[in-house]
Amino acid sequence: MKSKSLAQVTDFDLKLLRIFKTVSECGSFTAAESLLGITRSAISLNMSDLEKRLGMRLCQRGRAGFALTDEGREILRHSDSMMAAIENFRQQVNQMHKQLRGEFTIGIINNLVTQPRMKITHALDALRASGTEIRINISMMTAAEIERGLMDGRLHVGALPLTSPVSGLDYMQLYDEKSNLYCSSQHPLFASDAEPDDEQLLQYDAIAPSFRMTAEAIGMHQMLHCTATASDREGIAFLILTGRFIGFLPDHYAAQWVEKKLMRPVAPARLYFNSKIGIAIRSSRRANAILEKFIQSLDL
Predict the structure, then answer these.
(1) Is 49 helix (H, G, I), strand (E, B) or coil?
(2) Are residues 171 and 185 in the same domain?
(3) pLDDT, tens digit, for every residue of 94-112?
(4) Partner residues linked to 170 by β-bridges
(5) Which of 6, 104, 119, 278 has a CB 3.0–4.6 Å from the CB of 173, allowing a cystine?
(6) Which Pfam families does the annotation name (predicted)?
(7) Does 261 lie in the same domain as 188?
(8) What are phi and psi of 105, to 5 degrees?
């Protein structure tokens, strides 16, 4: 057979070499049929294609039986080395995916840790399991601070209420969060069996959040006599526990005081609103395997 140079190794060449290896291990085209799932004639055509590609005869076949040529034995040896190198490359790439390394910075609004579904907690757990060389940095921030951190690149991801979207950020919903109006055990409403009507409600001091709210939440606060403000939910809880104010808190956050009979909801059938909590990421972000792993682990 006329010798020729091999310009490059293609996927088709790899397929032919795998067929050649199987035939060599089986000792005949007939024995290789069941393993390869193709007919003897198809095997013969593939072998002829490989010999033409390489420019050398690899085996003798005919009435005398199947036998490798000297060139065939050399090609088989080099083929085994190449296949082993490809498999090693595949394993190394997979290992890189399993052992991520680098910084991951997340901004989270206060008091989200009591959310019972714990998607963020589970995703952080999965992220840490992906590589001990991932350094996780958490900052507790307001929603506005989170959005600024995402835009200037200080944060990879943020968890915040989904109120009004900011251009340049992508949002994905995580939780539905219900907030009721609460009073403490020291407040006059705590021991009252009768629910206050709208006029009676205005007799009590209330807390207005200084952070952004949805239209539904704003409507609920307009029903109150707000004489104090708070920058976050913890601040609202502090003021409610004084016994002098009423205010809205997420049910999952207020539950710790409700269980101790230090708080109770006021008119829960009508004085509540629902919010959506989600994550935000920068739209024009660079490719980041750690961030992608975190998002994947949220199971959205």
Answers:
(1) helix
(2) no
(3) 666 666 778 899 999 988 8
(4) 281
(5) 278
(6) HTH_1, LysR_substrate
(7) yes
(8) -120, 125
Taking the alpha carbons at both ends of the chain, their separation in whole angstroms is: 60
Element (H, E) at 247: strand 247-250
Identify which of 227, 220, 183, 229 has the alpha carbon closest to the alpha carbon of residue 198: 220
Q: 189 lies in which domain range?
A: 176-274
255 close to 233: Cβ distance less than 8 angstroms: no
CA distances from 204 to 28, 59, 107, 216 (A): 93, 96, 35, 21
Q: Which pTM was predicted?
A: 0.65
Question: In the chain, which ranges are continuous DSSP H helix?
Answer: 11-26, 29-36, 40-54, 70-98, 119-130, 143-151, 198-201, 215-221, 233-241, 251-259, 289-297
Write the CATH number for 117: 3.40.190.10
Residues 285 and 150 in one domain: yes
**Burial category of 198 from C-beta neighbours within 10 Å (exposed 0-12, middle 13-18, buried 19 and up):** exposed
